[in-house]
Amino acid sequence: MSATGYDLPAQPAPGVRAWAQLTLAEMRSVVRDTSGLIVPIGMPSLFLLVQGFASSSEVVPGTGGRSVLELFVLPLMLVMVVALVGVVNMPSFLATYRKGGLLKRLAATPARPSMVLGAQVITSLAQTAVGVALAVGLAWGAFGLVGPERPWLAVAVFAAICASLYGCGLVVAAIAPTPNASVAIGLVVFFALGAVGGLFGGLQSLPDPIAAIGEWTPFGAGVVALQCAWVGEPVPAQSVIALVVTAVVGAAFAIRFFRWDR
Amino acid sequence: MLTAVEVRGLRRSYRGRTVLDGVDLTVAEGETLGILGHNGAGKTTLVETIAGLRRPSSGSVRVLGLDPQADRRRVRGVLGVQLQHAILHHDLTVRENLRLHRSFYRSGEDPDALIDRLGLADVRDVRFQRLSGGQAQRLSVAVALVGAPRIVILDELTTGLDPEGRRGIWRVVEDLQTRGVTILLVSHQMEEVERLCERVIVLDGGRIRAHGAPAALRSQTGTETLEDAFLALRSGAASEGSAA
User: Fold this and answer.
1) Domain extents in chain B
2) Across B69-181, where does the E strand assignment appear?
3) How far is C-alpha B230 from the geometric centre of its chain's CA atoms?
């Protein structure tokens, strides 16, 4: 272990215990202030039930008995929920901490940006996973939803979608100075990704050049990948690359440009 | 004796306004330095720059020989900071907040023992948002000490505390002094500074207007109390400013 002339020992980075404590602190905060649970846990069920009642339950020919709901509505709704929570909802919590001075307090300790961002993502993902599982369960009960052809592939794709869209959200979380700025930036990013990713009528309704771009965005790539996983088709490599690259670049950017203070 | 904090030619400006204007300062290891100044004199900016929470516009800061910006982790590991405004996780209890902060350090104090020392035993399981101002302030001091720091920055240590609470905190600071901890104390409480600090600097307009032991400042200004000495130095600075 190296030391300076002041006998100052090298400081190892805060370890697993610190990561666990910070994540636990975030989880406790969320559970104790239940208003934060409404969007990630309530919204998926609301969207899926509304869309389930509105969409056709007819089976699409040549799809192995899959309905319009399963083929088109469900993937779109799930990606939309993850995008809304990851890009708009999750960053607003960190921006609130930043504005209130809590991040500045943490900046005075050996805690690192990656710990703060990681704790937020894990906490938010846990809520989203519960919300999505609840929504899919309700859709199964209400509309006779058939599960994915390859469940583990669907879970892996869903995890990649979460990583990718949370990667975009981390960028917003890292730099937005205030909660208002965070929501404003998050909504712009959400609608921009959604518009080119097929949120308004599907990728097939977009002009070809826009649809081609959309398939490289986390939203469009996520919808395509989830559709494929649900019906048991191979997931296109393009979608996987788009999701992984967005996740890695987003996280790296957020850690590099993280602001502790306003 | 080793130098704990060394500041050379420190300038810090915000949007064209100069907050610190060429501050030079040396604090020996184990010394307690009081930092006085009126509101807006640059006290908090000075200590937050020493803590590495703000970047200098120019000049240099060294904490135990290290740059707090470049050697962030190593400096944070030996520095405890009590910020002017006590902000912690609102929905966590006193004990949970303290355990969280303890986990960031390789070694440090036992959170429960610290809770007892700071008179927070009765509110150990109360959430931060439900604490009184004085209790939140004491928890903020506990958080600054939980990593067993070699240097502590205390910014308005006893603001919001009743006389009993104030004296209790002073005893905690005196205990740190006996253990050889270096302390930078920002305060408006002259009695506190006189009791705890071996040396004082008076900041005005981002510059050090006077420095020395409290008794030396009283003698220099021909006053009987540190408060009168501070006011005399302030009025002297104001008349210099108007003459200029």
Assistant:
1) 3-74+188-243
2) 79-82, 151-155
3) 18
Q: Return the pLDDT at A18.
A: 94
Q: Report yes or no: B11 at the A interface, CB cutoff 8 Å.
A: no
Q: Residues B152-163: pLDDT tens digits? A: 999 999 887 889
The encoded tokens of residue B8 equal 């050379």
> In sequence order, which residues have a C-beta less than 8 Å from that of residue A155 and are 6 or more positions away?
none
pLDDT value at residue A8 = 74
Q: Which residue has the tokens 């004199």?
A: B41
| Residues contacting B182, CB < 8 A, separation 6+ | B4, B5, B27, B28, B29, B30, B31, B32, B150, B151, B152
Two tokens, residue B226: 């540190």
A16: nearest CA partner in chain B: B103
In the CATH scheme, what is the code of domain B3-74+188-243? Answer: 3.40.50.300
Domain with A199 in it:
38-256
pLDDT tens-digit readout, B2-44: 899 999 999 999 888 999 999 999 999 999 999 999 998 999 9
Tell me if A193 is assigned to some domain. Answer: yes
Rounded Cα–Cα distance for residues B214 and B227 (Å): 10
What percent of chain A stands above pLDDT 90?
Answer: 57
Claim: this prediction has a pTM higher than 0.90 = no
Judged by CB atoms closer than 8 Å, whether chains meet at A110 and B73 is answered as yes
Domain count, chain A: 1
Q: Inform me whether the C-beta atom of residue A96 falls under 8 Å from chain B C-beta atoms.
A: no
Q: What is the C-alpha to C-alpha distance for residues A256 and A117, in angstroms, rounded to an integer?
A: 12
DSSP-derived 3-state class of residue A157: helix
Task: Give the tens place of pLDDT for each residue, A32-49.
Answer: 888 878 888 888 888 888
Contact B99 A105 (CB under 8 A): no
Taking alpha carbons only, the member of B90, B173, B170, B196 closest to residue B136 is: B90
- Judged by a CB distance cut-off of 8 A, whether residue A114 touches chain B is no
In total, the C-beta contacts within 8 angstroms joining chain A to chain B are 85
When mean pLDDT is compared across A71-80, A155-164, A247-256, B169-178, the lowest value belongs to A71-80
Q: CB of B106 within 8 Å of any CB in chain A?
A: yes
